[in-house]
């Protein structure tokens, strides 16, 4: 196995026109903690995570995915990745150097094949975090992010070639072919998944809960608060994780999950799961049926930030 230069998913940054409403949602009913707020930027941490923040909100006229940030083990790996990307002709936004964002660190940014901004960093200051207690139904950490791509296999090949993401599993259907690839950079079944969609956009952001009870309590809290549920509660077959999907105030899909599968990478062989089989989408059979209407809910709006770097 090729030595990976990425270690984990750090944070997902969103530009939002409805900034105050989004801050209230994520720091309120969703259960994150606002740790800094400065001139239209809000940094939101998960109480169980050492990351400085897992979501950043930026006030903007247009909704977009600002960036996805991954960690590296050290500055040497950051430099090695930058050199590799430059040699391969990948378009860098910045070269490796000291970061001016919360927690500092050393890193750089670049565009992926679809034009999304990706950041890789090391030596970011860790945040004092804590153990999430029994029945405390707030996110422990960021789990994974899923992206829509109009050319699914081109995007998969790019992340494999340039960032050493390995394929864990694929969702397919007899009528539509391959629909989603689950990709990993560590033993977690997926830190990134790629979904086939009509345009480049964010599919969903997923947050890990302490356990099944906390996951269900959080799901119930959102339902009681009137947050619009898209799909769930249920349990996927690929990754073996639970799921409850909701809309944030501006139509981005966010998920509560728990118990995402940890793989023995030396022994693992990717599966191709037939999504027309109901147990593939939901092993429990408790969620509303997966159909084309549910799938379209996560297409999101076309991303206006492709090949346009965020201002901060």
From TrEMBL:
<keyword id="KW-0223">Dioxygenase</keyword>
<dbReference type="GO" id="GO:0004493">
    <property type="term" value="F:methylmalonyl-CoA epimerase activity"/>
</dbReference>
<dbReference type="GO" id="GO:0046491">
    <property type="term" value="P:L-methylmalonyl-CoA metabolic process"/>
</dbReference>
<dbReference type="GO" id="GO:0051213">
    <property type="term" value="F:dioxygenase activity"/>
</dbReference>
<keyword id="KW-0479">Metal-binding</keyword>
<feature type="domain" description="VOC">
    <location>
        <begin position="141"/>
        <end position="259"/>
    </location>
</feature>
<protein>
    <submittedName>
        <fullName>Catechol 2,3-dioxygenase</fullName>
    </submittedName>
</protein>
<dbReference type="Pfam" id="PF00903">
    <property type="entry name" value="Glyoxalase"/>
</dbReference>
<dbReference type="GO" id="GO:0046872">
    <property type="term" value="F:metal ion binding"/>
</dbReference>
<dbReference type="InterPro" id="IPR037523">
    <property type="entry name" value="VOC_core"/>
</dbReference>
<feature type="domain" description="VOC">
    <location>
        <begin position="8"/>
        <end position="123"/>
    </location>
</feature>
<dbReference type="InterPro" id="IPR029068">
    <property type="entry name" value="Glyas_Bleomycin-R_OHBP_Dase"/>
</dbReference>
<dbReference type="InterPro" id="IPR051785">
    <property type="entry name" value="MMCE/EMCE_epimerase"/>
</dbReference>
<dbReference type="InterPro" id="IPR004360">
    <property type="entry name" value="Glyas_Fos-R_dOase_dom"/>
</dbReference>
<keyword id="KW-0560">Oxidoreductase</keyword>
């Amino acid at each position: 196995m090729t030595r990976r230069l990425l270690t984990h998913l750090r944070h997902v940054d969103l530009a939002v026109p409805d900034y105050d409403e989004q801050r209230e949602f994520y720091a309120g009913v969703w259960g994150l903690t606002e740790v800094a707020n400065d001139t239209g930027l809000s940094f939101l941490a998960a109480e169980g995570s050492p990351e400085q923040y897992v979501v950043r909100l930026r006030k903007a006229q247009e909704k977009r995915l600002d960036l996805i940030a991954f960690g590296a083990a050290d500055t040497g790996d950051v430099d090695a990745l930058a050199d590799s990307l430059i040699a391969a002709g990948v378009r860098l936004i910045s070269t490796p150097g000291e970061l001016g964002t919360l927690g500092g660190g050393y890193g750089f940014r670049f565009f992926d094949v679809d034009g999304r901004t990706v950041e890789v960093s090391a030596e970011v200051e860790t945040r004092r975090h804590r153990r999430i207690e029994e029945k405390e139904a707030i996110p422990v950490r960021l789990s994974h992010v899923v992206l829509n791509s109009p050319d699914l296999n081109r995007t998969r090949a790019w992340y494999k070639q340039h960032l050493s993401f390995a394929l864990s599993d694929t969702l397919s259907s007899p009528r539509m072919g391959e629909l989603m690839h689950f990709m990993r950079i560590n033993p977690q079944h997926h830190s990134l998944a790629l979904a086939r969609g009509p345009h480049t956009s964010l599919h969903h952001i997923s947050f890990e809960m302490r356990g099944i009870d906390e996951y269900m309590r959080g799901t119930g809290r959102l339902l009681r608060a009137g947050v619009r549920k898209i799909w769930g509660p249920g349990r996927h077959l690929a990754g073996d994780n639970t799921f409850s999907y909701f809309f944030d105030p501006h139509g981005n899909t966010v998920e509560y999950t728990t118990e995402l599968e940890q793989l023995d990478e030396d022994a693992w062989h990717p599966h191709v799961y037939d999504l027309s089989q109901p147990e593939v989408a939901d092993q429990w059979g408790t969620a509303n049926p997966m159909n084309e209407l549910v799938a379209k809910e996560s297409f999101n709006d076309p991303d206006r930030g492709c090949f346009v770097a965020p201002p901060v």
